[in-house]
Design goal:
The protein is an alpha/beta fold. It contains twelve helices and eleven strands. The strands form two sheets. Strands 3-2-1-4-6-5 form a six-stranded mixed β-sheet, sandwiched between helices. A five-stranded antiparallel β-sheet has the order 7-8-11-10-9.
Length: 403
């Protein structure tokens, strides 16, 4: 197995092999200190190869139990051989390896998003099987910059522009963490090269059919115009900081606005909601929809259309209103009450309504069909666009190996 990837020779911001080694080890140390078992997601690219070898060295004999998992999507002829190569590398380090294969039919459209969902589902199941509370991936600063750029093109709000989080819950008792999110990919390439470690290259990383590959090719030109990876990452940090503040304000406002309602309903004080700044009210409603059992994707355009164009004006004017979103009926009453409950079923689907009858009375246009994906909320998917519709079409990345 030989490293044939299009590697960057320089590691921006890191001078010398010692600095690179210290940065890699320092980035991993806090996560290893949490104890184990820990599951490492390793595909064989330089990022995840560095993750596996550095974790094995950092854990030592007395450290946490480490397991390695490779997801074989079965999308390329070489995928099985690549998973076996990772298994051999893990065995050489004395680490157990789990090959996770995506079984069953694959969708004809939205393949990249489906592959990503399958990848994290399989990894979460594997972590549960070994009682691991921590899943580590090899995402880098370069990945973060690309993700922010993609979300910028998709029109995302601060939650989307905050990019990938250094850690987030992936399931009950399981944290997904990205120790190398602050390091350039070149640092990990240099780390592997200094140790003579062979790495894999996924050809889809340079395949112009995929939006992330096209944007990656544009990054040098954008950097010359000032939109560098460092500035995109700085944008993510600022957006995350502002989103955290707005989220905290929304959580506090939601707690203050809750009111007693009939069983099966979530009640809010409409006057309290109406008095909030729009940015906080949007996030309060997003949390209220989650709390009331809302289903389906959390799309910023849909929420904005509901809240800014209909619900908040009605609450501020004292007008009654009924609308549906995410399978819930949102009702503003003349007495100032605001309630959320499951939308009643209809005898049959109406044009623009959910085919299973989950949406009740209200403007079907609020469902936002056919629009590009943008996000609101404390955590967003790593893939920022929906395949097949809107200006973001085709930007969802392939299941790549350069981790």
């Amino acid at each position: 197995m030989s490293g044939t990837g299009r590697d960057r020779d320089a590691a921006p911001g890191l001078a010398g092999e010692g600095a690179v080694e210290g940065a890699v080890e320092g980035a991993l140390a806090p996560w290893l200190a949490r104890g184990g078992p820990i599951l490492l997601a390793v595909s064989g690219g330089p990022d995840s190869t560095a993750l596996m070898h550095a974790a094995a060295a950092g854990a030592g004999r007395a450290g946490p139990a480490l397991h390695v998992a490779t997801v074989d999507h079965g999308l390329r002829p070489d995928s099985a051989a690549e998973a076996e190569a990772v298994a051999r590398g893990a065995a050489g380090l004395g680490l157990p390896h789990h090959r996770l294969r995506w079984e069953g039919p694959h969708p004809a459209t939205g393949l990249q998003a489906a592959a990503r969902e399958a990848r994290y589902r399989l990894l979460a199941a594997c972590a549960g099987g070994i009682d691991a509370g921590l899943l580590l991936t090899g995402h880098t600063r370069d990945d973060q910059a690309e993700t922010v750029l993609m979300r910028l093109l998709a029109g995302s709000g601060p939650a989307g522009l905050a990019g990938m989080r250094a850690e987030r819950p992936l399931g009950p008792g399981l944290i997904l963490a990205r120790p190398f999110l602050g390091l350039p990919k070149a640092a990990l390439v240099a780390w592997c090269r200094a140790r003579g470690l062979a790495t894999l290259r996924d050809p889809s990383n340079a395949d112009p059919r995929f939006g992330r590959a096209r944007l990656r090719a544009l990054m040098p030109a954008l950097a010359r115009e000032g939109l560098s990876a460092a500035r995109l990452v700085r944008l993510a940090e600022r957006a995350a900081r502002d989103e955290a503040a707005l989220g905290a304000a929304a959580a506090q406002a939601l707690a203050a606005a809750l009111r007693e309602e009939a069983p099966g309903r979530l009640g809010l004080d409409g006057a309290e909601v109406a008095a909030l700044p729009d940015a906080v009210a949007l996030r309060l409603l997003d949390r209220a929809l989650d709390r009331a059992g809302g289903a389906g994707p959390r799309r910023l355009e849909r929420l904005e259309r509901l809240a800014l164009e209909a619900l908040l004006p009605a609450l501020r004017a004292g007008r009654p209103l009924r609308r549906t979103l995410r399978g819930l009926l949102i009702e503003a009453r003349p007495d100032g009450g605001l309630s959320l409950r499951p939308a009643p079923r209809r005898g049959g689907p109406r044009p623009g309504s959910d085919p299973h009858g989950r949406h009740g009375a209200g403007d079907a246009g609020l469902l936002g069909k056919g629009e590009p994906t943008t996000y609101i909320g404390p955590e967003c998917d790593d893939d920022p666009t929906a395949a097949g519709k809107g200006p973001g079409a085709g930007l969802a990345h392939s299941p790549r190996m350069d981790r």
